Amino acid sequence: MGRSIVILCDGDFPKTEYPRYLMRMADFIICCDGALVKFLRNSKSIFGEERLPDLVIGDMDTLSASMQKKYCDIIIKEEEQDHNDQTKAVRWAMNNIPDLEHIYILGATGGRPEHTIGNAGLLMEYTRMFDMEQSGIAVESVSDHGTMFAATDTLSLDCGEGRQISIFSPDNSLRICSEGLEWPTDNVVFDNWWKATLNRAAQDTVTLRFSHKSLVLIMMN
Question: Residue 164, class by beta-carbon neighbours within 10 Å (0-12 exposed, 13-18 middle, 19+ buried)?
Fold first, then answer.
């Protein structure tokens, strides 16, 4: 059975049970930079006792020097600025966690809106950077408001009738024929972010058929 890890970013710390459950069940927990402070503040309410994450990674621009010194044994400082801390954590996990099956990213939304948009878009980028289709590793960004994940080809979602679904893509040549959505996406041209948002599942299973392999971000609330 594969391992699951949680990457905690420095956005809104989850208050609802599902993302907190993911933390309790994770085989390994990575905090991105200043997210360590939020983790320490909330660890007792989640785990029933105070505990540390397994690793802290980032350029340490949002973690005080005193905290860096105190927790130096679990800190990996990566100062390169070509990638953000979320990506550094995903990259480390892909290279160092054996039998990795699932990466759950928490705290990637909230705070500065450009961080939220950038972190969401990176879910699509990871499919190329880390060849997720070949590896079979699933990456989801989970918040109190829903779950986001990338797709690259036709798929079926066992989401339950009434689930809110939004679809985003940077590929304006892509066409997605849908079954099971309240408003079919067959004629949608993905030339702006809003074009296939705020949809809803009209049945328990939704099927999205891609005209060709491409990058898509799916958000379910």
Answer: middle
Beta bridge partner(s), residue 218: 149, 167
The C-alpha atoms of residue 119 and residue 109 are separated, in whole angstroms, by: 8
d(CA 159, CA 220): 8
- pLDDT, one tens digit per residue, over 38-93 is 999 999 999 999 999 999 999 888 889 999 999 999 999 988 878 899 999 999 99
Task: Tell me how long the chain is.
Answer: 221
Prediction pTM value? 0.94
- Check pLDDT > 90 for residue 131: no
User: How many other C-beta atoms lie within 10 A of the C-beta of residue 172?
Assistant: 11
Alpha carbons 9 and 36: distance in angstroms, whole number: 9
Q: What are phi and psi of 91, to 5 degrees?
A: -60, -45
Binning pLDDT at 50, 70 and 90, where does residue 209 land?
A: very high
- What's the DSSP call for residue 140? E
Report the run of H or E that residue 199 belongs to, with start and end. strand 196-200
Helix (H) or strand (E) holding 214: none
